[in-house]
TrEMBL record, chains A, B:
Transmembrane segments: none annotated. Keywords: Metal-binding. This is Damage-inducible protein DinB. It comes from Chryseobacterium candidae. Belongs to the DinB family. InterPro entries: DinB, DinB/YfiT-like.
Length: 163, 163
């Protein structure tokens, strides 16, 4: 067995990460679409938040967090700026944020990914870890949306279909 | 606005990916522990698989998939090798797989991450995408486990606590 040193091996490029993330966002968009209007805002399991609230959380993180990283702004996290009343409003905002995410993500340098940033004035981690957290948090909540859909008797979209 | 080219920017090292994954695996282990013995094997929502079955899936992917990648083996995916009857058996196997994952992951070269491999003779993607899929799939199913726990009236572990 040959074990090579791992410390300097690169795993993937920033373009590949952005592509993965936007693929996840496409799938999450399909999950939002899969909910009937009423259940999107009202249905949940075990006293958790309905999927509309989870979608608002995801919308309030991705774009605003990247903007904060690029502009060095440590303004606190807030969901107050967006109070959608319809599925259409959520989907429209979702698509707008796709462009916001591309815009800011592409301005982050290779060095910056390894630098620590106090995201939202609260989460002090290397930038790459903050970005992985955004993606993981989305996959986590979307998995919960899959359970809501199954509990409603609705077949969720295939997990592996991203584009 | 300055937009720099993204194609050649590196996002993170392989050591950082392995560390993130093992952090996720620690959290998933805590979720397994949080279930009462009976509910781990029997409880679910919306006709889905109980969390013991989801844990067996995760155990059947990580280590065996990395072994396949390193050894160039395209044997089909199977959950047949592991049929646990207790939580303790699952946790013991989980910990064994921690070492298996470290062992094989560290043998994958930087170039190999970008090469295509027909995982389990079925999933033909670049190796880095296959590995991201293992992690995403774990976060996805663990999110479902969080709903099961909430439906059982059990507080899940904090999502951000990994080590």
């Amino acid at each position: 067995m040959t074990t090579t040193a791992t410390a300097t091996k690169q795993f993937m490029t920033s373009e590949q990460v952005l592509n993965e993330w936007q693929g996840h966002r496409n799938l999450t968009r399909r999950v939002i679409e899969s909910f009937p209007e009423k259940e999107l805002f009202e249905f949940s399991v075990g006293g958790m938040r309905p999927f509309a609230k989870l979608a608002v959380e995801l919308i309030s993180i991705g774009g605003p967090a990247l903007k904060g990283i690029v502009e060095g702004n440590v303004e606190a996290y807030s969901e107050e700026a967006f109070n959608p009343k319809t599925k259409e409003e959520i989907l429209k905002k979702w698509d707008e944020e796709t462009e916001v995410i591309n815009h800011y993500f592409n301005q982050i340098s290779e060095e910056r990914f390894q630098e620590t940033f106090n995201l939202f004035g609260q989460y002090e981690f290397p930038v790459y870890q903050n970005i992985l957290y955004f993606i993981d948090n989305e996959v986590h909540h979307r998995g919960q949306g899959y359970v809501y859909l199954r509990a409603l008797g609705i077949e969720p979209p295939f997990f592996w279909e991203r584009f």
